[in-house]
Amino acid sequence: MDTATCQSGSGSGETIALVGATGSGKSVLTGLIPRLYDVTEGRIEVDGTDIRELTLPALRATVATAFEDPTLFSLSVRENLTLGRPGATEDEIAEAIDVAQAHFVHDLPFGLDTRIGEQGMSLSGGQRQRLSLARAVLTQPKVLVLDDTLSALDVHTEALVEEALRRVLHSVTGLVVAHRASTVLLADRVALLDNGTITHVGTHSQLLASVPRYRYLLAADDELDDGAEADPTWCTDDERRCAREDSEIAESSERASRDDDFGSLHSPAREARR
Ligand SMILES: Nc1ncnc2c1ncn2[C@@H]1O[C@H](COP(=O)(O)OP(=O)(O)OP(=O)(O)O)[C@@H](O)[C@H]1O
Ligand SMILES: [Mg+2]
């Protein structure tokens, strides 16, 4: 790696989607930013400062992360949510819950005061992911790093979260690991990772048009999208009737020829020709 810079503070940051096959290094790369791992060469800068020069509290206030398999602590929901921002107001907490579609917390026995991991409160994977996303959003970071954070959500909830995230990402620098076109579309640009190396950077449509490997990785989604966007072939009732009659004629002549073939296998004439 050379130098990776995150500029923030101008009011609108760029969001980069990281796309790559499983094991290509997406999580390792995203883990470098909150310094779960340190770079062995090159540097990562936020607003011109090497992240290794920031104190841990300063780094945590600058970079918020939400991972696929998030860590929640045996604390109340509120304490878990405000770990990155202890002074958050009720309105800010409510907004973060809204962005992450984590409204289920209000149905817990003691609402936001329910202790996670106790009182029989073991949350589902998708609930944990949404809490961790709300926590990251509540931090109001300069850099938001999301590694497969929506993977456990059903497509409808995912779409709601993405819609809200779009607003949040508008004002931060974002790094979003994406497996689906809908998540990629949250980003301004896409970096394609292959075996630990960023091989291409471009917009979604540029990569789709010019990089077969990128097309391949998002292929299942494209097929769905193509299907959803396919122009229906409209025809009048008469055309439909003609088409049905044509297909019936074709079917019956095919049946006749099949019968004929079958019959001819046993026909004396055919036997005689052999
Ligand atoms: N802590 C670690 N120590 C050593 N190797 C690791 C570590 N974490 C990941 N790797 C290896 O680094 C490579 C990239 O892993 P990484 O988790 O970044 O993949 P990924 O692109 O996030 O994949 P996925 O889409 O499955 O999450 C893999 O070969 C993996 O085995
Ligand atoms: Mg990963």
From TrEMBL:
Transmembrane segments: none
Biased composition (Basic and acidic residues): 237-274
UniProt cross-references to SUPFAM superfamilies, sorted A to Z: P-loop containing nucleoside triphosphate hydrolases (SSF52540)
Region Disordered, residue ranges: 228-274
Keyword annotations of the record: ATP-binding, Nucleotide-binding
Annotated ABC transporter domain residues: 1-220
One MF annotation (Gene Ontology) recorded for this entry: ATP binding
Statement: the UniProt record of this protein carries the keyword Signal: no
Pfam family, one: ABC_tran
Protein name: ABC transporter ATP-binding protein
